[in-house]
Each structure stands twice: as C-alpha cells, then as structure tokens.
Design brief:
The protein has 81 residues and is α+β, with helices and mostly antiparallel strands. It has 1 helix and 6 strands; from the N terminus they run H-E-E-E-E-E-E. Helices cover 19% and strands 27% of the residues. The strands form 2 sheets. A 4-stranded antiparallel beta sheet has the order 1-6-5-4, covered by helices on one side. A two-stranded antiparallel ribbon has the order 2-3. The protein starts with a helix and ends in a 16-residue tail after the last strand.
Length: 81
Amino acid sequence: MQKYLTLALLLCALLSLSDAFCYIKLPTLGMTHCQDDVDKTWHAVGSSWRNSECMDCSCSGCLHKKDDPTVLCTNYAQIGK
C-alpha cells in the first residue's frame, strides 16, 4: 500500500511540472469503495473514472490536465446540477 502511495505522490509531482492539477486521497485500510469528491458517486477500489469537472480519478486521487488536446472533455459546466 505504501508503494502505491509513493508512486502516486511521485506521479503528481512529475505531472505538476506539465501544467496539470491533481490531488491525492489517503486510502482507508480495508475499504472496498470510495466516493468522488465532486459528483458524490461511489466507485470500487481499483477502478478509474472521469468526473463532471473533467478530472481523471481513482480512489487514490484525481488529475486534471489543463490545455491538453488529447483529453476530450467538452462538459465544462452543467446547468441544473
């Protein structure tokens, strides 16, 4: 578990140099699901998803790449949410 946390920290440190935004969430021992902080949806540990703020997430944290043309996400705002 500590190996994954170290890898996530290193990844975010490297990505921050490339004009990206990310954050890390510390996992709880024995958890099977986690909740997206933005959409409040639940996801299984080990899965990955893209939330409504165009952030690529896992239970370990989220990453948002600014000005990256390879990331397709045109939904920048939602009305009535």
